[in-house]
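Tokens as discussed.
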């Protein structure tokens, strides 16, 4: 399978509508240029519409799940004929009954579309960054893991800060994931952690890791970029730079099964594994 990770800048001098159209065109262009039509995969970064650190814009730019970004990305996936992990959006969910302000909670929600433009999965980010500010207080936490079955592999979905929590990825592997896809708006000042953790998640889960980072600056925070693809043995197959660019890698999907068979470490797990029935 061939996969392309597209680094996008969510700079504040470009409107969300303009960027949405630009990214849709970019998806179609990359799909045609890289020969992805059919079973190819394109991955976009986290919150590329608003910027992962543009906290003041979250509420104003929030949209329903099937809002303008959904529509634009579904159309782009269909026209390009690719599997599209459309990064994530600031989702405004329906309000709970009795909500004081009449508005529903915000979620950092990833969208994955099939080559016919149908929604294959939506994942609400579980681990929100910011400790006692920013995303951690402005957005609600997701509660469910998400996987997507492609013809040749199963994707496990995670987003940015999730990368620091290995138990999430163990859950995805238990659910059948063989390729872990992680859109992010990772800060440049912690870029060393980004590459280290991407390799760690690949090695410990004997899975491919496709981690796509945003670039540019938003909310005063410089984004790291440096999207990276790591194979199940921990080898870096490709790494992007700090600007808008495309990282395309061919994945030998049979290597997941071969690695797990030749070095069956996952079978030796003792913690976090359900006790066998007697």
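Sequence:
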């Amino acid at each position: 399978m061939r996969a392309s990770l597209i680094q996008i800048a969510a700079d504040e001098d470009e409107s969300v509508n303009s960027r949405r159209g630009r990214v849709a065109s970019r998806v179609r262009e990359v799909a045609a240029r890289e020969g992805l039509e059919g079973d190819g995969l394109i991955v976009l970064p986290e919150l590329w519409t608003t910027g992962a650190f543009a906290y003041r814009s979250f509420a104003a730019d929030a949209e329903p799940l099937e809002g303008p970004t959904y529509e634009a990305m579904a159309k782009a996936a269909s026209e390009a004929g690719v599997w599209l992990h459309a990064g994530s959006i600031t989702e405004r969910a329906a309000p709970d009954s009795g909500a004081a302000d009449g508005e529903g909670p915000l979620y950092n929600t990833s969208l994955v579309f099939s080559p016919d433009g149908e929604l294959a999965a939506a994942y609400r980010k579980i681990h929100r960054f910011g400790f006692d500010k920013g995303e951690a207080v402005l957005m609600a936490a997701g509660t469910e893991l998400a996987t997507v079955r492609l013809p040749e592999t199963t994707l496990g979905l995670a987003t940015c800060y999730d990368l620091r929590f290995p138990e999430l990825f163990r859950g995805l592997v238990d659910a059948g994931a063989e390729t872990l896809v992680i859109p992010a708006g990772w800060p440049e000042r912690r870029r060393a952690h980004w590459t280290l953790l991407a390799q760690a998640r690949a090695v410990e889960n004997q899975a491919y890791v496709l981690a796509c980072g945003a670039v540019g600056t938003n909310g005063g925070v410089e984004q790291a970029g440096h999207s990276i693809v790591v194979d199940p043995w921990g080898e870096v197959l490709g790494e992007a730079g700090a600007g808008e660019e495309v990282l395309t890698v061919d994945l030998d999907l049979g290597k997941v099964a071969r690695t797990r068979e030749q070095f069956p470490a996952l079978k030796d797990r003792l913690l976090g594994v359900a006790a066998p029935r007697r």
